[in-house]
């Protein structure tokens, strides 16, 4: 059961008091539960968050270019970040979920938490407008804004490597999984990156194929640039 | 040369008067030209537009689900639509472009026009806030909002077909270009769509491979659903 006290605690943490409590209730109701659920609010909140964060990045990084701002924003609005914010607000304890989701631990799932956080922002917007959402986001993101730097807006190693090679009319890198080890939920992948034209190859490892590729690409960039 | 009069005419058409004219000038300056260009403003304007349109769709379609609103928004913010709005505002005549872009007719290019329109919205936001941008977008999109209906939010035929087949555990459709005719800039493609499990095949045509595939998928849906 959702507790009145817990909803009060949430609003106090947000430093925002809802005029219309049904909006707050709806934001915390997953599609799997009965009654008005939060999917439409999530759509709204997602678009508000994207705008508020864009405007803030524009302000705090007057020299960032469009690509850098786009990459910084992606970090701030990705599911993992939103689920972190949702956890700081203990949204999981407040969610209404249907039986199936409840049993399978849906209140801990990043996608459900992140959606609920976006829906909460949408609800605040409907309840009292852009300015209130802006204040709430500013306060929740304060520490994240402070940790940001333009160096975090660099392209990922695979993109960097590809652009570097393309800019020099060299053949593109190839990635191949050479082996993997461990159980499904705890697997390690090894990937070999080869640049045919340069006659170079590197190996990277990671907990997913993608991570292993990025690691191999990173090493390739280092080899090419510094010859080590 | 950009004319003072033309800038006045634009502002009158927008029903918005800039306090800071340098923002207006910057919004109309492509990266290829000298001076402060519009890429950062475009980033800002893009996010504002996404939010304003989302909020509007939320309001005018109280029964639309998240997916429908997402697809309707995509129609309203895609490059082609934005370039149309930019053309209604004659933005092409007002753009500052570098020599290369000027020669190659950049002022007519959809991507450049669409970017300039987004930058204009970003400039209005910086000049006087969300409310002003909202009014400008509302007025420019009025006729487009009126033409919208939920039936336009349907998924495209290929997606519909795939989901229909997946929902019935049937094998997925295959698409194959069977022939193409005409010059590069005016080519017609024929694509055959085959659903192995159902022992059916249809043919579609279009000015691109994608369009021909959609047409073939549309016909396949009709065959499957209505047996014609």
From TrEMBL, chains A, B:
<comment type="subunit">
    <text>Homodimer.</text>
</comment>
<dbReference type="GO" id="GO:0008033">
    <property type="term" value="P:tRNA processing"/>
</dbReference>
<dbReference type="InterPro" id="IPR000999">
    <property type="entry name" value="RNase_III_dom"/>
</dbReference>
<dbReference type="GO" id="GO:0042802">
    <property type="term" value="F:identical protein binding"/>
</dbReference>
<feature type="region of interest" description="Disordered">
    <location>
        <begin position="201"/>
        <end position="228"/>
    </location>
</feature>
<dbReference type="Pfam" id="PF00035">
    <property type="entry name" value="dsrm"/>
</dbReference>
<feature type="binding site">
    <location>
        <position position="42"/>
    </location>
    <ligand>
        <name>Mg(2+)</name>
    </ligand>
</feature>
<dbReference type="GO" id="GO:0006364">
    <property type="term" value="P:rRNA processing"/>
</dbReference>
<keyword id="KW-0699">rRNA-binding</keyword>
<keyword id="KW-0378">Hydrolase</keyword>
<dbReference type="GO" id="GO:0010468">
    <property type="term" value="P:regulation of gene expression"/>
</dbReference>
<comment type="function">
    <text>Digests double-stranded RNA. Involved in the processing of primary rRNA transcript to yield the immediate precursors to the large and small rRNAs (23S and 16S). Processes some mRNAs, and tRNAs when they are encoded in the rRNA operon. Processes pre-crRNA and tracrRNA of type II CRISPR loci if present in the organism.</text>
</comment>
<dbReference type="InterPro" id="IPR014720">
    <property type="entry name" value="dsRBD_dom"/>
</dbReference>
<dbReference type="GO" id="GO:0003725">
    <property type="term" value="F:double-stranded RNA binding"/>
</dbReference>
<feature type="binding site">
    <location>
        <position position="118"/>
    </location>
    <ligand>
        <name>Mg(2+)</name>
    </ligand>
</feature>
<keyword id="KW-0963">Cytoplasm</keyword>
<comment type="similarity">
    <text>Belongs to the ribonuclease III family.</text>
</comment>
<keyword id="KW-0479">Metal-binding</keyword>
<dbReference type="GO" id="GO:0019843">
    <property type="term" value="F:rRNA binding"/>
</dbReference>
<dbReference type="GO" id="GO:0006397">
    <property type="term" value="P:mRNA processing"/>
</dbReference>
<feature type="active site">
    <location>
        <position position="46"/>
    </location>
</feature>
<dbReference type="GO" id="GO:0005737">
    <property type="term" value="C:cytoplasm"/>
</dbReference>
<keyword id="KW-0698">rRNA processing</keyword>
<protein>
    <recommendedName>
        <fullName>Ribonuclease 3</fullName>
        <ecNumber>3.1.26.3</ecNumber>
    </recommendedName>
</protein>
<keyword id="KW-0819">tRNA processing</keyword>
<keyword id="KW-0255">Endonuclease</keyword>
<dbReference type="InterPro" id="IPR036389">
    <property type="entry name" value="RNase_III_sf"/>
</dbReference>
<feature type="domain" description="DRBM">
    <location>
        <begin position="156"/>
        <end position="226"/>
    </location>
</feature>
<keyword id="KW-0694">RNA-binding</keyword>
<feature type="domain" description="RNase III">
    <location>
        <begin position="7"/>
        <end position="129"/>
    </location>
</feature>
<keyword id="KW-0540">Nuclease</keyword>
<dbReference type="Pfam" id="PF14622">
    <property type="entry name" value="Ribonucleas_3_3"/>
</dbReference>
<keyword id="KW-0507">mRNA processing</keyword>
<feature type="binding site">
    <location>
        <position position="115"/>
    </location>
    <ligand>
        <name>Mg(2+)</name>
    </ligand>
</feature>
<dbReference type="GO" id="GO:0004525">
    <property type="term" value="F:ribonuclease III activity"/>
</dbReference>
<keyword id="KW-0460">Magnesium</keyword>
<dbReference type="InterPro" id="IPR011907">
    <property type="entry name" value="RNase_III"/>
</dbReference>
<feature type="active site">
    <location>
        <position position="118"/>
    </location>
</feature>
<dbReference type="GO" id="GO:0046872">
    <property type="term" value="F:metal ion binding"/>
</dbReference>
